[in-house]
Amino acid sequence: METTNYVEFKKTRDLGSIITDTFKFIRKNWKGYFGTIIRIAGPALVLLILSLGYYMVSLGGVMKGITNGGINVEPPEIFTFEVGIALLVAMISGLVFYVLMQTSSLYFIKSYIDNRGIVDRNEIISNVKQNFWKFLGYGILMMIMVMFGVMLCFFPGIYIAIVLSLGTSILVFEGKSVGDTISHCFKLIKDHWWETFGVLLVVGILVSILSMVFSIPALIYQMVTMMSQIGQDDPTAVLGLFSDPIYLALNALSYIGQFVLSSITLIATVFVYYDLNEQKNLTGTIEKIDRLGNV
After folding, report:
1. CA atoms of 225 and 236, how far apart (whole Å)
2. How many CB atoms lie within 10 A of CB 150?
3. Is the confidence at residue 71, as pLDDT, over 50?
4. Is the distance from CB of 83 to CB of 62 less than 8 angstroms?
5. Cβ(45)–Cβ(96) below 8 Å
6. Between the CA of residue 263 and those of 87, 105, 133, 286, what are the distances in Å?
7. Which of the chain's termini has less CB crowding within 10 Å, N or C?
8. Closest C-alpha to 197, from 246, 248, 224, 163
9. What's the number of domains the chain is made of?
């Protein structure tokens, strides 16, 4: 069975088509796609937002204590400890969220492709549970390789990051091991690095612009609050913004929007993966021939 709005992934595309079809897929499937991500990765996202909020409150306490010379405030080391704990929790929950967001996004697309537009959410959840640690290991290894490349001469890090961006698609759609995935990334992207870089750059810019929409309310509130405090005798008054519940809520909205929208880039990498795979292996063409033969 195939839906009338089905978007074909397994075919060659130029840069413009990849970008257009990325947003076409979102337009036609945004409710199920983002709903699946929030359902699976939502708890980690909530923990991330809470820890970031607590980090901001604790950091404000440290800055206020330093500004006041430690007078009539809690010892700075208490706030410093709280800042460290909040930052650690934010880093761990952020890593877990990112892995869950990646896996839920890509397995949503896999279910969408396998069932020709019909998505099985239970199948997605099962695949996420089974492959969480594999994705986590790949993500950590990718970060190490990219950081090493950046330390060498910066540009090697950019090159490696673009190459390994295809790895998550290979893990999902080909089921390879982490080691085989890394080697296959270099093989698949050979002679097509600049095309891939161009797609990810343009999509990244577009997603960043969309994400800015969620940041505007917090930015406006921050500017209005700071302007209203100009001329006050208390130099630490502006630091109260870090514990302002309205400001924290607007920042939470901004973070949620930015984190969830970042998954759009993953969709673009899937289109790039299938474009390169089709050029080199013709898997989509072969499958179409087989379907015609069965009919």
Report:
1. 13
2. 15
3. no
4. yes
5. no
6. 23, 7, 19, 30
7. C
8. 163
9. 1
CA distance 115 to 3: 9
Q: Look up residue 202 and give its two tokens.
A: 């343009």
**DSSP category for residue 229:** T
Average pLDDT, integer, range 114-130: 94
Q: Around Cβ 128, how many Cβ atoms within 10 Å?
A: 22
Examine residue 267 and state whether it is found in any structural domain, yes or no: yes
15 domain residue, yes or no: no
Two tokens at 40?
Answer: 């699976």
Structural domain harbouring 158:
21-294
Inside any domain, residue 3: no
- How many residues does the structure list for the chain? 295
pLDDT at 78 over 70: no
CB atoms within 10 A of CB 115: 15
Contacts of 225 (CB under 8 A, 6+ apart): 238, 241, 244, 247
Whole-model pTM: value is 0.85
